[in-house]
Specification:
heterodimer; A: alpha/beta; Peroxisomal Thiolase, Chain A, domain 1; 9-stranded mixed sheet; two-stranded antiparallel ribbon; 13 helices; B: mainly beta; 3-stranded antiparallel sheet; 1 helix; 37% strand; globular
Chain lengths: 376, 139
Amino acid sequence: MRSTAVIAGIGHTTYGAHEGRSTVSLNVEAIRNALVDANVEKDAVDGLFVKFPTSAIEFTYGQKVAEAIGLQPRIGGVWDQGGAANIGMIMFAAMAIEAGQCEIAVVSFADNPKTGSRGGIAKAMGPDEVFGWFGAAAGYAMIARRHMQQWGTTRDQLGAVAVNARTNALANPRAQLRKPLALGEYRASRPIVAPLTRDDCCLVSDGGAAVVVMSAARARSLDVPEPVPILGFGQGQTSWNVEQRPDLTSTMAARAAQTAFAMAGLRPADIDVAQLYDCFTIVPIVTLEDYGFVKPGQGGAFIESEGIGIDGALPLNTSGGLLSETGMPGMQLVIEGVRQMRGTSTSQVPGARNCIVSNQGGIMHTHATLILGEAR
Amino acid sequence: MIETAIDVPLPVHDELSAPYWAALEEGRHVFARCSVCRNAWLPPRRECPRCLEPAWTWETASGAARLISWVVYHIAFHPAFKGRLPYTVAIVELAEGPRLISNLVDVDDPERLQIDQPLRLTIERERDVAVPRYRPETC
């Protein structure tokens, strides 16, 4: 059964550097903008779900954000699933609304790893520092290497993901990185942790982003200008650390998508545009396979032969994604999904009626899927 | 820029892991084997992740392994590794099943390695600690 919830409003800060700004302040700006977009008064909000920032871990962070916006929510808190948390919280908000626990929920995220601490993304992974095992990039490089050798995925196929993201970012004035990227330049990109190079890695960004969730009925009664229906959602958690994972080239994203498609009553063929989490170029390739758009191992070939541009078989990451719009973990993909469903993207897919959005966290440890329908 | 000598971070020896590192000092690479369901695992944990029982013993690995995947660091995420670039880190699967993070040694060109190729244990010293590393198996 489809969700009865909608995304009523979207808001964000600028993306890039916010020297000296606290993450609480970035959350407040994003929330203010989302409430304005939804045409909702702050005092109507009774649910507040927040993903904690990685730059500094604080207890009861959700309450700090609530205090900063002068809110005493009926329900709220901080949700930790790494980069899967934003869709995870939107799901939780939709379920809380349907269960009568709140009526209007704000889901928000802000972080400042660019000008603040970057400890959360460069740290050693477990007790294996003695082997030089550091950084998230290396975990994704392990997955990329195995995928390339097992399935024949090529550097150029990874590059097509990076080039597509940059092409869409060039059309998006909000994007943090708007320097053109051709495949030839991608090939010459300096290696970070081979097989991944600089241009395979997402941006590091400060910023905040928020959405307002409520029931479709409530959105009608409040005259919300452009509510976007939430058709389906799902999660799946791979859990194993990358070195312990029995299969490096597929994840529980498959389960997340199955749940979301079943809830929406849709199949991959019904999807017109996709915003797939692209912290590293290998991830959208694996996600296309896990989601059932292509057979296992065929993600790279699909991107090359069928196309992921605006006129391709499946337009992908139409605002530039984590690779080029902002490195923030996932909320910008939801916001771009909403824009596509409203017809207001800077790389609008003509006539798009259904958009799928993926969020994932850790080294593909967690996954959450959201399917959005046309605004009405 | 003045380079100061920064040591490679050594593994923490706690109550759970001390026997693992002590065995390596004796030239043996060990893993945990559940006494109840026979599951084998690394790194050490107090309960079997399959049957959740806390009854298990250390077992010595044969040293035979295979290469699941590997990466080559071209930038140092820790200053101690600056002088070792580029270096290779691998996911290794023991013939007995457990997997671990390790380094590959005696590799001329890491870009020519193959997934699933056989590896062989070699115990090396990292300062005053014996650590398990792997080299390509020569037939």
